[in-house]
Amino acid sequence: MNKTTKIFLTLIVTLFFTVNISQAKEIKTSVTDGKGIWINIWNYPSNPDSYCKYMKSKGIDTIYLQVFRSNTPAIYSREKLDKVLLAAHKNGIKVVGWGYVFLKNPIEDAKKYLVAINYKSKDGESLDGMAADIEEVTNPKVIDTFARYVRSHVKNDYPMIAITFSPMFKRADPKKYAWKTIANNFDIIAPMTYWHALKDKQSQKGAYDFTAETVSRIKEYTGKSDIKIHIIGDGQKTSSSEIVGFLKAANDHKVNAGVSLYPMHVPKKHQIDTLAEFKMN
User: Fold this and answer.
1) Residue 115's CATH number
2) Structural domain contains residue 172
3) Between 15 and 97, residue with greater pLDDT
4) Sequence-ordered list of residues with C-beta below 8 angstroms from that of 11, at least 6 positions apart, any chain
5) What is the 3-state secondary structure (H, E, C) of the chain?
6) pLDDT digits 0-9 by tens, 204-254
7) Does the pTM of the predicted model rise above 0.85?
8) Does a structural domain hold residue 134?
9) Is residue 13 part of a domain?
């Protein structure tokens, strides 16, 4: 091999790796990727270490932990939060906090939200992300005020996560619910996909159809076909069959920011096992 050929091959190899590294940098993972379980402020695990070990053994890598409501302190229980953060991180589990923001006073809610974002436990642990549960006041101006205030106080790449209604319900009609404002201010939309509230959806097919339509309508109502969606499944007395339908729809319709279940108080074994067996695309 002569010198010219060697130089040419070196250039080709260098170009190949440069292009692939560049492409790799463009692939951004989401803090909500993977599989998760939701916990509200009344149902923190009594033994966080045991709880987290069990979840990890089932392939669940994220806990969505409520840390406040608008009518509570910014950190509802520091002692309990510290224990969960330490146990989760020790077991390789992310903790995404969430706050139920009434948005009657969006700036005050935003300040509480920022306290949670910046919280450090006595062990130096912090939340891996924060989500805002938007259910009470849903007017575009108020949502925009809240989101802009938070965004102005965090780094540009901090993930903004909005918990929303499923657009399958009337309360989420785009004439009333600010889908485009939410999509313009938040990086990830996490719809509460609670099919079990409707009797005609309490089956594998019903859960599948409800979930598929939820994803489709979010893309339509936001005007963003590539929007990041983390889909929250119904754990309110739902059967394994229903959860299979939900998860299959999430896969088939290319949900791109993870899946999770919101249980009734604590998740049932069959619900965890069904989620554990789910293989994500």
Assistant:
1) 3.20.20.80
2) yes
3) 97
4) none
5) CCHHHHHHHHHHHHHHHHHHHHHHHHCCCCCCCCEEEEECCCCCCCCHHHHHHHHHHCCCCEEEEEEEECCCCCCCCHHHHHHHHHHHHHCCCEEEEEEEECCCCHHHHHHHHHHHHCCCCCCCCCCCEEEEEECCCCCHHHHHHHHHHHHCCCCCCCCEEEEEECCCCHHHCCCCCCHHHHHHHCCEEEEEECHHHCHHHCCHHHHHHHHHHHHHHHHHHHCCCCCEECEEEEECCCCHHHHHHHHHHHHHCCCCCCEEEEECCCCCHHHHHHHHHCCCC
6) 999 999 999 999 999 999 999 999 999 999 999 999 999 999 999 999 999
7) yes
8) yes
9) no
Is 89's pLDDT higher than 80? yes
Question: What tens digit of pLDDT does each residue of 162-218 get?
Answer: 999 999 999 999 998 999 999 999 999 999 999 999 999 999 999 999 999 999 999
Domain hosting 127: range is: 30-277
- Would you say residue 18 lies in a domain? no
Q: How many independent structural domains does the chain possess?
A: 1
78-90 vs 48-57: helix axis angle to the nearest 10?
40
